[in-house]
Every structure is written in structure tokens, then in C-alpha cells.
Design goal:
about 450 residues; mainly alpha; two-stranded antiparallel ribbon; about 5% strand; globular; disordered N terminus
Length: about 450
Amino acid sequence: MSVMEAADSALMAARAQFAITISFHIVLAALTIGLANFLLVLEALWLWRRRRIYLDVYRYWLKVFALNIAVGTATGLIMEYQFGLNWSRLSTQAGDILGPLMFYEVLAAFFLEAGFLGIMLFGLKKVGPRLHFFATGAVAAGSLISAFWILSANSWMQTPAGYAIAADGRFIAEDWWAIIFNPSFPYRLVHMTFAALLGTATVVAGVGAWQLLRDSGNPRARLQLSMALWAILVLAPLQFVVGHLHGEHTLKVQPAKIAAIEASWSRPSEGEGEPLRLFALPNMGERRNDWEVAIPHVGSLYLRYNLTGTIAALDEFAPEDIPPVPVVFFAFRAMVGLGVLMLGQGLVGAVLRWRGRLFARRWMLRSCVLMSPAGLVAMLSGWTVTEVGRQPFTIYGLMRTADSLAAVSRGQVVGSTWVILVFYLVIFGVGLWVLLRVLREPPHEEQPGPQPTLADETGDA
């Protein structure tokens, strides 16, 4: 094997390792955000309406939240180590910018989230309901602040701003305001936050529906399903709007990514416009699509708001600057397809609610169970579009992924990947076993743990 081939092999192994670790961790991070805010709403409703049912459901999902935090912390630590092991050149060149951003994330996670988590888990009777609600709010806020800094760092790598390049090639901060609020950050922050909330909502809806299939009269299961479907109904259309705005901005700053999403290898002839490719097999070797099924002109409608507009095609970029088109193409369609299903889930739920049949239609309950992972899978698909579509750059247009890799061999990376996989399988295996035991029984009126004292509590009618 030549030196170039060995380097390429090590690069692909390192990229695969990071893809594995981030895929595990991002699901847990999204559930942390979603569940923390779900718990915040439940406790707020309990304090406002004085109905015990909200507290019962709160305590039920609090156990799931605590388990998620425990597993997520373990997986997150391993992921961070890769910046020093596999991507030390990136850390060296961009550490002056990325380091402070990630440090602020650690401050939010460990001083705000972890600081109030103990009160949230064990302090309801000790500190009183309203102070406990403050702790829940602090944990929920901490999860969002943590996402703020992580997404700011990632967005800076997508649309770098506010930097200067030193004589030794290092990126030096010049304008922290421009770095933090870089051009793509607002779109990515809102889009990712909605994705986390939607992913959590589909999980909660699935759990509630599964419990109703076993006991259709359980009021707490009904509450879970009802709240989750309300969240899906509101968030799904908003997510489409935010996603479209994000795509419009990406067309300006990363046109090659949009060309890969559309699998557009060459501009259409004048007047033809961009088609909507429903299906195709992008052929990287021959730079064309096989088995293409497309609707003429529709692509121009959402890309250029007319029937004849075009976008920069893949043949207008250097071959070495084109991302892996098949991965981006199919991941985007998976994300949008699942988004459409979630939108349909919310609308059908609203119609059935209006007709008073929401909890009586077993086909709807079964569909909610099947849709449980839809939000999280859509989120992973969107993350794949974002990260793979940025290739072959780590810092878009400035630093290639190949130049970010540490001096490691393929064997070293593959060996550490197997160690990580074994660790993850053990952690996730134990976590999944405990989770299933928790979810096996629906929430009941009497949950274990200290009983709160709220003078005007009126029960769960």
C-alpha cells in the first residue's frame, strides 16, 4: 500500500469512528434537551392547575431523563477524546477558536445542568415545589445553552467568520461576536432545537400509544400521547419553514452541498428549470444519475421561486471539492420523508381529537408506536446531510479533512473503534435494559419517592 493509500485508509477509518460516536451521542443529547423541556412543561402545569396527574407523569419521565443523562455523559466523554487522538491537527490549527466555545459548553453542562440535577431528582419534598420548579427550569435552560455553544462551534466550521490566519496557519480569533453568531448559526440552532423536541415528542407519543394499546383507559398514558401529538402538530410545520430558510442560506454559502442534495450534475438547458428528483442512483464515477425519477420544474419552484431558475451544478466545482453525493442525496430524502410523516401524524391526531376518537383508534395508536424513532432518525439524517455535505472540508473552504487528521495509522484507528464499539454496546445494552424495565409499566397515581407538599393540590381529575 502506498503512503497516499495508507493516509486515505486512515482518514476513512477516523471519519467512520467519529460518525459512530456522534450518532450514538447526538440521540442522547437530543433526548436530554427534549425531555428536560417536557418535564419543565409538566411541572409548570402541575403548579398551575394543581392536578396530580401531571406530577405522576413528571416522575415517570424523570427516571428516563436521569438514565439518559447517565448514558449520555459516558458516551460524550469518549467522543471528546477523538479531538486529541484522531484530529489533533484540527485542534492545533483551530483550537484558539473552538477551544473556548467548547469550554463554555462544559461550563453550561456541568455547572448549570449538573448543579441543579440533584435537586431535580431528589429535592421535591426537601426544597418545596416552586424552588424545585426553578431547578427543573435551570436544567432545561442548561441543556439549551449547551446546545447553543456546541452548535456555534459546528456552525463556525461550516461558515467561518471573525478570524485571522497566523503565519503558522493557525486560526486566530479577531471578532468573537462574528465567530459565535456566524452566518449559519441562527438557522442551525433553531433547526436542531426543533429536531430535538420533535424526536422526543415522537418517542413520548410512541410510549403513550403503546401503553394505551394495553390499557385504553389509562389517563396518564392519554396525557403523554395528547401532549406529544400537540407538540408534533405545532413543531412539524415550523420545522419545514426553518429547514427551508436554512436551505436557502446554504445555497448561498455552500452551493456544492445543495447541488449534492439535488444530485444536479449539470445545469439544465435554458428554460427547462431544475427538476425535483424523487429517486436516483447518483453515479460518482460517471458523474450522472442512474434510474432517475424526477418531476420537471418543481425544483426551481422551491429553489428559485419560478419555473426556470437553476442552481450551480456539480460539474462547476473541482472534482476534489465535491462531497459524497449518494450519501447526501439519500440522507436528505430520508429526513424530508420522515418529516412529512410526522406532519401527517400531527394532522391526523388533530382530526381524531376534534372527532373525539383520538384514544379509541387502535390503528392510530399502532402508527404512533411505529413512528417512535422517526424524529430521531430524521435528525440523524439531517446531521448526515450537514456533515457529509461539507466534505472534503473540516473548516469549509479553508481546511480539508485530510489535513485535519493526526499522524495515526489505520490499524490504530480501527483498533480504538472496536474498543469504543464494545464500550458503547455495553453501556447502551445496560441502558436499554433498564429503560425497558422503566417503560414496561405505565405511570400510576402513586409513584415511589418523597411526596410533595402543595397546600392547594386537588388531585388528578
